[in-house]
Amino acid sequence: MPKHPQRPPPGGDEGGAALTAPDRLAALRRTGLLDSAPEPAFDRLTRLACRLLKVRTALVSLVDADRQFFKSQQGLPEPWASSRETPLSHSFCRHVVEDGAPLAVADALAHPRARGNAAVAEMDVAAYLGAPLRAPDGRVLGAFCVTDGAPRAWSEDDISLVQDLAEMAAAAVAARHEVAERRRAEAALRESEERLRLAVEGAGMATWDVALATGKATWTANHFAMLGYRRRPDGCATYGMWMDRLHADDRARVSEAADRCARDGEPYGIEYRVVRADNGEERWLSAFGRRVEQADGPHFIGVLFDVTERRAAEAALARHRAELERLVEERTAALLRSMEERRRAEESARQAERLAALGQLTGGVAHDFNNILQVVASGAALLKRPAVPEDRRAAILEGMIQAGQNARELTGRLLAFARRQPLKPETFDVAERLAGMSALLRQTLGPSVAVTTDITPGLWPVHADPSQLEVAVLNLAVNARDAMPGGGTLTVQARNVALSASAERAAGEYVCIAAKDTGEGVPPHLLARIFEPFFTTKGAGKGTGLGLSQVHGFVTQSGGDIHVESEPGRGTAVFFHLPRAGTADAAGPPAARPVEAGGAPEAEGLSVLQGVGRTVLVVEDNPDVAAFACSLLEDLGYATERAGSAAEALAVLAGGARVDAVFSDVLMPGGISGVELAAALRLSHPRVAVVLATGYSEPLAQGSAPAGVQTLRKPYRLDELAVALGRAIARSAAPLEAAG
């Protein structure tokens, strides 16, 4: 007898896990053998084992989680023979399942795997030999075993025989399983076909199946009904029955599509009309089919739907859609006409408003300029009279000079309103500026107006023109004073704010400056006009109407916005926002600045000798302006030459003329502006000083004059001209690196 390794007692972790493994138990239940009746195929094997091995008992044992069931037994004592099962406490076969290998016990009383097994005493088992009974997937379902009432040494032939019988029993299990699976599949197929039939009929569908080799066709009941036929009991139909019902206009295309599918396997999906056989009614059907290969050859199968109601609904929907589109087109055309009429009316209203505003602007400009011209014209007429006393002549000249200054201030305010004034932006501390204005505001407004400030600590710096900021605050303060004839309080506030984007400003960080008074307030119907030039709510002679428009122009040109809140009897608050200065603003180069009256240091004062030995080329297309400019320069000691355009000036310089400075207008005919002339001279004649004079220039207003170029605003005074030329000549005499 071969030696078998000693095994641990039953109940170990590894063996128990194999015994109760869910996949093994599931495979056991799938066989359908548990608690099934005895079968001859298994009984023949147990009888054969008893006869060949001359043993008392042979078993086909199926080991469950808590018991063993005997599919076949020979020689088993009662009550086990009748119950055909034992608990696992009586099972040697459990060890075969746990080990997945044969188990031979020669003497149960001496073998460690039999210790504690109740079958030894209760079933008189003295010797045991078992081999694994495997399912088709290899899992161990139980054991084929034999037992004897006396100890017995099992030979290798005995073990081989039991293993062969176990394999035969496994084959019987597989065959039984295959039969059971086939029966289950057939039952499932029948159930599925019945469900499909019920679903097809319940959904109002029909099916067909045509055997292409024989031409035999099978229709469902709905197929017959759709074509107006009485259903045949066997469901058989013919190709002609179908063709006879096709609408004459659809027959050719439907037949061709069906032939391509049956012959070539092309997808078959088509809608067509049929004429019912019973009542001649025309119906729309939708068919889907394909060619499939079956055991008896190729078949043409498919489903059929009655889509008459759907087609009718689609046709009605198409009619409604067409009607709706017609109505939409009509309504749209009417709306467009209405919108066009409204646009024209609004454009007419805007044009009228523009004309009214232009009329008010030109009227105001004409009024103020006529006053200025009156002073100039009257003064000129008086100066032409003989024997005008010297003191009277000096007063007349002073009045004319002041009139020119007034004209200059008026054009400056107009440019501020139009956001075209030349600004001198720099980064500065708003809090410091406003604090420095407190004394000026109190002095300007008088004792009847109390001035208070409310400035948030840590106020951000801004990048703007500080002098224009002061002018703006002073304008708002004067307006507030005039709105409080009996006295009141003016509060100047400043705080940091973060604002979202609006129509007039970009999103970002701003400093909000506000001027709030306790005066009369502005009626709501006038608020929309307060930024119009020459519009004023003050009485006659109390204001020019340019103060708020100048503030509006400065703020918007600086990248901010402004708005007013007011309520009659409760005062007015004007808020404007200036963008917070960035590092780029602080580090950027200074813009070219126009020379202002009184803006020069004392050392740059007027000198009749400063031009001696120097020549200035005057570039001006207006002969009168050019003549006066030359006269002023000659009074300063300069020699002068004249050119009527930038091109002529470049030609003069190219001809070798000795020129120390060029004094040019900005806007001139000929295609080359004064700014472009200055840029060209910086490249071709870097030692020639350049001064630009203009009443208004877009590039100069945006601070884009070439580096090293002085600018002068018209009308200019002799002292301003002297300062500008002195600065320009001094810079041109410096090293080129500094001049650049």
TrEMBL record:
Residues 615-729 form the Response regulatory domain. Its EC number is 2.7.13.3. The keyword Cytoplasm does not apply. It catalyses: ATP + protein L-histidine = ADP + protein N-phospho-L-histidine. Gene3D superfamilies: 1.10.287.130, 3.30.450.40, 3.40.50.2300, Histidine kinase-like ATPase, C-terminal domain (3.30.565.10), PAS domain (3.30.450.20). Keywords: Coiled coil, Kinase, Phosphoprotein, Transferase. Residues 364-582 form the Histidine kinase domain. PROSITE patterns: HIS_KIN, PAC, RESPONSE_REGULATORY. Residues 268-319 form the PAC domain. This is histidine kinase. It comes from Craurococcus roseus.
